[in-house]
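thread: overnight batch results

M.L. [08:02]
morning all. the overnight job finished for the chain we discussed friday. pasting input first so we're all looking at the same thing
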Amino acid sequence: MAKSQAKKLRERLIREGKRNPEAGRSPFASADLRTRTTKTRHEQLYKVKHKNLISTYGDDGSFLFYVHSSVLDLCS
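M.L. [08:03]
and the structure it wrote out:
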């Protein structure tokens, strides 16, 4: 693979005893600076894979109807 002109120039400067330009690079030059995005609408809607599982907080979407026997006597 061929060397780029910039790499040839850097190597020449080092060979001549001058300062290495790579030493002046910021430590953030190699960091991943891509912005993190928020979840899309689709990801928000479908983030729960299994619904109605047993929950310790009672907010699992399940419900129970309980009719007391005295209420049944009043209705009939």
